[in-house]
Backbone:
């Protein structure tokens, strides 16, 4: 007989799923609904024991993916999750590794959609000050595609820790009182305060960071969907800024600002790792190609779970044409050996592909790439990450961390912290092996090496 189970949250699904599993009820015999749906006429809602509970073990990765997929708005998500759970516990323990399986593929598609929605919420929510409030209070209105408020709210609580704020969406809302996040029902837009004192501040800020050299209207519409524009204070000035852009670009080029040149035009039309590796030697997007022996592209399997990103090739790498073959590479290999990670299991690359150096007699001394060179070279790294889509991204040192995590990143403050970035859900920064080698104090050097090994172990954890 078909059983009908009403579910709203991940926690409810988890409880019901354990009970259904404990009672041996197959996925084909159960229909999950949300509260909006009505039970079918002959639905059996009572016959599953309230106490039967399965003690099952499933991969941690399934629980992580289930929590994310539970936030998807698709009405079939609960059934998909239960079917996957059933299969994992009925002779298919390695199911999640079968990426071609229909259920696994659908799970990953839903996870990707939810993750992207969370990213957009973090990017597009703009708070407005409520003038009438006794305490300084801010509100924001947002229209996500999925039920993602609980996934995104901790980010806002960290970022705006010392503010009282509320975020309203049509589906649910959240309030932060500088101590606790409280979740509630959704609110229609008409009930949200439209105090605009924060808007003018935000407009000023937006105009000051707006770089006309990077304007791509189609991309702006894709990244900042037009339906979000009405809630963004800066939207009202975008057209003015766009109208101004050509003149401002010309001015910037004349002043030699704006990083107008990037490697994009040197990328092959349909880039994969092989075509990228051969195209990079033709790149002339910055001056570094004039002095280096050759470009040093990334190396490793295209399905690598871990991608390590360093700063730039060194003297030995420049000659060999391979990343991390010098002393820093030897230290990296020592760390890999401690963790029993094969060098051929990971993909290793750099932010900048040509060696930058200062000539001192016969020696070529490493010189840090500047912002213009990092910006120019970025399309190569972006194409590598897009081709591989790693499970974990490891930034070796401050340069890749600032390029991929954020300009304010400080390795001494945030080394070893796993965080989500637009490139990878698990992004972590650690010491650059060369920084460990340069440390003069032996005890500190050994300590940094152990921290480095610990961070790589964290990156390697599933
Ligand atoms: Fe091109 Fe990067 Fe080499 Fe500059 S460093 S020439 S951007 S590949």
Residues:
């Amino acid at each position: 007989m078909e059983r009908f189970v009403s579910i709203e949250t991940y926690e409810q699904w988890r409880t019901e799923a354990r009970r259904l599993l404990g009672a041996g009820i197959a996925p084909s015999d159960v229909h999950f609904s949300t509260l909006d749906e009505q039970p079918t006429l002959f639905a059996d809602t009572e016959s599953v024991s309230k106490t039967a509970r399965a003690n099952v073990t499933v991969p941690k990765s399934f629980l992580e993916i289930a929590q994310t997929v539970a936030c998807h708005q698709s009405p079939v998500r609960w059934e998909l999750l239960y079917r996957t759970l059933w299969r994992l516990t009925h002779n298919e323990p390695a199911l999640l590794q079968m990426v071609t399986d229909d259920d696994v593929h659908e799970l990953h598609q839903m996870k990707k959609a939810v993750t992207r929605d969370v990213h957009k919420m973090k990017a597009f929510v703009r708070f407005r000050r409520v003038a009438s409030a006794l305490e300084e209070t801010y509100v924001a209105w947002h229209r996500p595609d999925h039920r993602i408020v609980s996934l995104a709210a901790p980010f806002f609580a960290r970022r705006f820790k010392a503010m009282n704020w509320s975020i309203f969406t049509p589906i649910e809302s959240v309030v932060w009182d500088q101590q606790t996040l409280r979740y509630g029902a959704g609110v229609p837009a008409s009930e949200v305060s439209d105090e605009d004192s924060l808007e003018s501040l935000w407009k000023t800020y937006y105009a000051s960071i707006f770089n006309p050299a990077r304007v791509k209207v189609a991309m702006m519409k894709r990244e900042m969907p037009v339906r979000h524009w009405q809630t963004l204070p800066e939207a009202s000035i975008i057209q003015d800024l766009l109208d101004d852009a050509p003149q401002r670009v010309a001015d910037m080029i004349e002043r030699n600002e704006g990083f107008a040149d990037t490697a994009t035009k040197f990328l092959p039309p349909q880039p994969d790792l092989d075509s990228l590796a051969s195209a990079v030697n033709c790149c002339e997007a910055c001056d570094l190609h004039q002095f280096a022996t050759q470009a040093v592209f990334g190396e490793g399997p295209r399905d690598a779970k871990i991608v390590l990103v360093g700063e730039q090739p060194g003297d030995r790498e420049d000659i060999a044409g391979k990343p991390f073959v010098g002393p820093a590479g030897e230290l990296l290999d020592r760390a890999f050996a401690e963790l029993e990670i094969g060098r051929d299991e990971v993909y290793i690359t750099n932010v900048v592909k040509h060696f930058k150096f200062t000539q001192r007699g016969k020696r070529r001394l490493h010189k840090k790439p500047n912002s213009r060179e990092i910006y120019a070279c970025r399309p190569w790294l972006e194409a590598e990450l897009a081709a591989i889509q790693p499970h974990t991204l490891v930034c070796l040192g401050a340069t890749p961390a600032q390029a991929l995590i954020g300009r304010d990143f400080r390795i001494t403050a945030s080394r070893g912290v796993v965080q989500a970035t637009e490139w990878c859900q698990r992004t972590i920064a650690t010491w650059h092996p060369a920084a460990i080698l340069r440390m003069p104090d032996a005890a500190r050097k050994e300590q940094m090496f152990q921290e480095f090994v610990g961070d790589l172990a964290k990156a390697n954890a599933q």
